[in-house]
From TrEMBL, chain A:
The lineage of its organism: Bacteria, Bacillati, Actinomycetota, Actinomycetes, Pseudonocardiales. SUPFAM superfamilies: Fumarate reductase respiratory complex transmembrane subunits. The keyword Membrane applies. Belongs to the cytochrome b560 family. Coiled coil: none annotated. This is Succinate dehydrogenase, cytochrome b556 subunit.
UniProtKB/TrEMBL annotation, chain B:
Its main location: membrane. Gene3D superfamilies: Fumarate reductase/succinate dehydrogenase, transmembrane subunit (1.20.1300.10). The keyword Transmembrane helix applies. Keywords: Heme, Iron, Membrane, Metal-binding, Transmembrane, Transmembrane helix. CDD domains: SQR_TypeA_SdhD_like. InterPro entries: SQR/QFR_C/D, SuccDH_FuR_B_TM-su. This is Succinate dehydrogenase. It comes from Lentzea flava. It comes from the Bacteria. The chain crosses the membrane at residues 27-50, 70-88, 109-129. It is found in: Membrane.
Length: 140, 135
């Protein structure tokens, strides 16, 4: 938080007013959009591939094999990372909207979002990539 | 001479032409978002991280899950909420960035068609899933 104690909306627009454009809050919004749109496109693909269970077990198993490919596996880590950010930042947006102190603590909450994201993604990466990496470096 | 002020207040907006659609859309994003946090993060955790993650998924795994009405309902709710939540988000993005009215119109038509297609297909698959289907 900058200027401790000072009201957020004090001052004129050009003086010590609030800055949105180019500030961290704007980038959190940009990232929210990008992760949301990417997830929506993936959902389109994912419902189509799951629909193959209605065609035949072989057709479904064949397409699911592509999800186990090392490169695609890495994309899955990216997908989980995108969805996790979108979820955590979405909770932050709800707190800003509905919690009386939300706007005051929006910046602290963004850092909390990023910290939780890192703490979850480190073991997440490990468990998602464990088998792929051990096979790549020549295990079993 | 007295100063005559004609209607010093702001003119009232014509009430009949306003709708609360965008308010409901805003509220829906928050309510569905709250449910999706549980549904989607739970789904990702089970499918990608728990117990071997994606490597254990195959037809038999899906059949085992959808034998339970609980997971059928979970997936159905997730499908509908995620499609409407995501579709509404993309609608906002199109409204923000499309420069021509015709572009905006056709992009949104494409979006709505894809939403109806995905929700219908997904719902059909969940309700008609047959674990004994032939290869």
């Amino acid at each position: 938080m900058t200027s401790a104690g000072a009201p957020e909306r004090s001052g004129t627009t050009r003086g010590g007013g609030t800055l949105y454009r180019g500030d961290l809050g704007m980038w959190s919004w940009v990232a929210h959009r990008i992760t949301g749109v990417l997830t929506f496109f993936f959902l389109f693909t994912h419902v189509l591939d799951t629909a193959l269970v209605r065609v035949s077990p072989n057709a479904y198993d064949a397409v699911i094999e592509t999800y186990k490919n090392p490169v695609v596996n890495l994309f899955e880590v990216g997908l989980v990372g995108a969805v996790l950010y979108h979820a955590l930042n979405g909770i932050r947006v709800m707190l800003v909207d509905f919690w009386e102190k939300g706007a005051k603590y929006q910046r602290v909450m963004l850092w909390t979002v990023l910290a939780v994201w890192v703490v979850v993604m480190i073991p997440g990466f490990y468990f998602m990539m464990e088998r792929t990496i051990s096979e790549l470096v020549g295990g079993h | 001479m007295s100063l005559a002020l004609d209607k010093p207040r702001q003119p009232r907006r014509p009430a009949a032409r306003r709708s609360n659609g965008e308010l409901y859309s805003w509220l829906f994003m928050r309510l569905s978002g709250l449910l999706l946090v549980v549904l989607v993060l739970g789904h990702l955790f089970i499918m990608n991280i728990l117990d071997g993650g994606v490597h254990r998924i195959n037809f038999g795994f899906v059949a085992g899950r959808w034998a339970s009405p609980f997971w059928q309902f979970w997936d159905l709710a997730m499908l509908w909420l995620a499609q409407i939540h995501g579709g509404n988000g993309v609608r906002t993005v199109i409204n923000d960035y499309a420069r021509k009215d015709s572009t905006r119109f056709w992009l949104k038509m494409l979006l709505y068609v894809s939403m109806v297609l995905i929700v219908s297909l997904g719902t059909f698959v969940i309700f008609t899933f047959d674990p004994n289907i032939s290869n």
